[in-house]
Amino acid sequence: MSKPLKQIHLAAHFPGVNNTTVWSDPRAGSHIEFSSFVRFAQTAERAKFDFLFLAEGLRLREQGGSIYDLDVVGRPDTFTVLAALAAVTDRLGLTGTINSTFNEPYEVARQFASLDHLSGGRAAWNVVTSWDAFTGENFRRGGFLPQGERYSRAREFLATANELFDSWHGDEIIADRAAGAFLRDAEAGAFVHQGQHFDIHGRFNVPRSPQGRPVVFQAGDSDEGREFAAADADAIFSRYSGLEEGRAFYTDVKSRLARYGRRHDQLLILPAATFVLGDTDTEARELAHEVRRQQVSGATALKHLEFVWNRDLSAYDPDGPLPEIDPDVSEEHIARGRAQVRMYRDPLATARAWRELAAAHHWSIRDLVIETGNRQAFVGTPDTVARTIDDFVQSDASDGFILVPHITPGGLDEFADKVVPLLQERGVFRTEYEGTTLRDHLGLAHPDDARDERAAS
Asked: Which of 28, 61, 385, 409 is close enough to 39 for a disulfide, judged by CB 3.0 to 4.6 Å?
């Protein structure tokens, strides 16, 4: 008997602070005006996507002592945007990145429970940590948290938030049209938590929401991050672009679930992916090349190289060879608050490898940054892209993809109109929503049902 086809999960990422967005394109819209978010979200819902995803930035980025001015900044607060979108969408999930290092469990739990109520059960939380004291300078406690304790706090933060969500049960509140809502159980919302990072007690004042808890996403790729996802997350983002790399990540993370009493299908693997469509595969490749040149200007390429070299490289020609001088490996880094600082743990080894690549392919600085900075990208005709996405999912390299268009808010339209119908024809993507909550879309059990299942096993 042949293996049944897996259903593909698709989501849409409204790009934030990054170099994916080609903001110089005349078709690019505002990242602040609400109309941009509305168009993007309603396109995703029209295409029957699972959810919309917003990243978050807690501080303007700096490099060489100046504000980094080569990509888009200024997007409004995540909770504000998602709550507003709840009013102009009906089924689309609403996922926000909220930091566990500098926030507090009670506040975040209250915000997510409220969003889940306002949206009718469509809230999701991408749990992230901040590793640098630079971002911490914006907050009361500054950079107090050692890097090694980030996941310890994150795990306890999520566990504490779950205790708050679970402090209510469905039968503890009575809705009365005349009197409003009142408690049936005097202990509803009561909580006590004592731990390494949090010592709180009181009453949680938001009743149990439709999903019980928001869907939980996690983005870490370290061993700690993978373990955190296997224990507590409903989905994990993947950065692996190749089929074999994707399969290896998929197998590794899914294999960790059993030790936490979880099934293979209780954690979804969802890489981010860009896309470029054309009438022919050749035309699409040519368009993709143009897009990458727009995304990585000469100035952007030099700034990116400075992440590794830790030196001012503004005097170098971005269309010329890589610097012969070695990176500065001192503790003081030229780029403050940049995620890329973590990606290059051995700058000297990275520089050697990049020089070898550049020499072998006759790449300039800009060529190198373009070629080494690629994320998963689907390039081709709509049929080619649909077939490739399906191949990845059916081959267990992912459970779906979070699509990141290079133009917002209209960049998702072509995918929705041309690729989604082909996936539907293949029988691997829904033609209508079958449920009302994000858990329904993702095939995830309600927390109460999942808890009962674990207890029974």
From this structure: 409
